[in-house]
Amino acid sequence: MNNKVIVIALGGNALIREGQRGANAEQFENVQRSLDGIIYCLKQGYRVVITHGNGPQVGNMLLMVEASRGSVPEIPLGVCVADTEGAIGYMIQQSLTNRLRREGIDRCVVTVLTQVIVDKNDKAFTNPTKPIGPFFRKDDAERFQREKGWQIVEDSHRGYRRVVASPNPLKIVEERAIKTLLEAGDIVIAAGGGGIPVVQRENGDLEGVDVVIDKDLASSVLARGINAERLVMLTGVEQACLNYRKPNERALSKLTVSDAVRYLEEGHFLPGSMEPKVRAAINFLTWGGDVAIITSLDGAEEAMEGRRGTIIRHV
């Protein structure tokens, strides 16, 4: 094993794919189909940290909270994030442990419930932008907006979703523990769903807040903190594109940081979708990372070899 560290961020469709309801059996099956890229990186000698999304799961959990209001104590959003981080971590941990045994790889997989510090004065608290939960038809979305007071937006031309506040991640609280596990040779699952959002009080105490953190931005902060060389973001599309879903759409196979910044400022990447991935890549490389990659769930191996996806470098 070498000392190179890679952070692999699994998108929400690693667990719930388009057209699925998200039953546990479906999620386990999807996770098992998403492990090839992780196994490839392990065989290349990388120390691996896995992050993952939780947008559909935490949204579904909030629907259950709404449905049971008055019958059981209400679960706040921050705790829903923690619950789904643990549940999804378990699915990945068990699935990867089984796959490692079949591959003859003797490694331990550990899920770390991860707290992520945000700024209590972040303007995002008053400007909800992060989509969570299932997609709705327009009429259903308007009804939820009236009846529940939700803020609803159209998400990437795929339907309507609830949005909640999503402040920028600043620091991973359990960073030292994650480093220690990596040094011991363990595979770590961390910052699931962007991590459990907390603020730091004047006396230094941590306190949970009812927001969510973008998992790609949190993955970037984590990658910086553990000195990762590569950040790989696996999602539902092959590459980042200019003019996405327009007649003049153009896929991007290679990008420099300066080009990525320019395209981001020109508004080519959709908020809540590709925009945070590109921002995460820019942040990671600016902080000293070597390579950031955006590709599909089944494209990790070829992308690592430079033959697939969008590969972003300094120059």
Keywords:
315 residues; Carbamate kinase; eight-stranded mixed beta sheet; four-stranded mixed beta sheet; globular
Structure commentary:
The structure is a single chain. The protein has 315 residues and is α/β, with parallel strands linked by helices. It has a domain at 5-120 and 173-238 and 277-302: Carbamate kinase (3-Layer(aba) Sandwich). It is 37% helix and 23% strand. It has 10 helices and 17 strands. An 8-stranded mixed β-sheet has the order 3-9-2-1-12-16-17-15, with helices on both faces. A 4-stranded mixed β-sheet has the order 8-4-10-11. Strands 5-7-6 form a 3-stranded antiparallel β-sheet. α7 runs parallel beside α9. It is globular. The two termini are 28 Å apart. The model has no long low-confidence stretch (mean pLDDT 91).
Secondary structure topology:
Blueprint: E1 5-10, H1 24-33, H2 36-43, E2 47-52, H3 55-67, H4 77-103, E3 109-111, E4 115-118, E5 130-136, H5 138-148, E6 151-154, E7 160-164, E8 169-172, H6 175-183, E9 187-189, E10 196-200, E11 206-208, H7 215-225, E12 230-235, E13 241-242, E14 250-251, E15 254-256, H8 257-265, H9 274-286, E16 291-296, H10 300-304, E17 310-313
Parallel strand pairs: 1-2, 1-12, 2-9, 3-9, 4-10, 12-16, 15-17
Antiparallel strand pairs: 4-8, 5-7, 6-7, 10-11, 13-14, 16-17
Helix pairs in contact: 1-4, 3-4, 7-9, 8-9
